[in-house]
Design a protein that fits this description.
globular, mainly alpha, 2 domains, Rna Polymerase Sigma Factor, Chain: A, Arc Repressor Mutant, subunit A, about 0% strand
Length: about 210
């Protein structure tokens, strides 16, 4: 007999009472989200596994502070983000040390790069080839550039939210985004050019 998933509030309450099934269900429901976020932020599978473990240790340690009228996934997401940032700080110290304004023209060039396939940026992330190329490029970024990029352009946080999360300033976040986007554009240029050439060749065949 298959057990039905527990409603979230009941699951949390049972977990607080020490119910093993409820605690296991919390992990199973959210472990993929936590691992994928940690992998994007750290750029390393082993560190992502460490963040995954640390996140759920913190989740159960602080579960009594969770408000039942909030979304559990959002709360766990914040814990995972903080765990990843803490790991990166321990490795390299302050993540965003410089405070320079980003270049609006550079941001526009980055946006044009993402839209070069005439598709929405979020849709592009679902494109397997582009996603693989982007993840390879992201892994090559310094932590101080990769983290703001992930939080802003993939996870959708505001500049203010990122600054608060990273314990820095909005100008510092803008500067890091500027550098990260520039580097990603350079890393992805070959992929974009190859895709455009393939699309052009395909169009010519259809016309011919």
């Amino acid at each position: 007999m298959t057990l039905q998933p527990l409603p979230e509030k009941e699951m949390v309450q049972r977990a607080l009472d020490g119910d093993v099934r409820a605690r296991t269900e919390i992990v199973l429901r959210h472990q993929d989200l936590v691992y994928n976020l940690a992998l994007k932020l750290t750029g390393n599978p082993e560190r992502a596994e460490c963040v995954l473990q640390e996140t759920f240790l913190k989740v159960f340690e602080k579960l009594d502070t969770f408000r039942l009228d909030s979304a559990l996934g959002t709360w766990i997401y914040r814990i995972a983000t903080n765990a990843a940032l803490m790991m990166l700080r321990q490795r390299k110290g302050r993540l965003v040390p410089m405070e320079e304004e980003g270049d609006d023209e550079e941001t526009s060039r980055y946006a044009r790069m993402l839209k070069s396939l005439d598709r929405d940026p979020l849709e592009l992330l679902l494109d397997t080839e582009f996603k693989d190329a982007l993840e390879r490029a992201m892994a090559q970024l310094p932590d101080s550039w990769r983290v703001p990029f992930v939080l802003k352009d993939i996870e959708g946080l505001s500049l203010q939210e990122i600054a608060q999360t990273m314990n820095t300033t909005v100008p510092a976040v803008k500067a890091a985004l500027h550098r990260g986007r520039t580097a990603l554009r350079d890393h992805l240029a070959e992929f974009i050019e190859a895709r455009e050439a393939a699309d052009q060749k395909s169009s010519q065949k259809r016309v011919g």
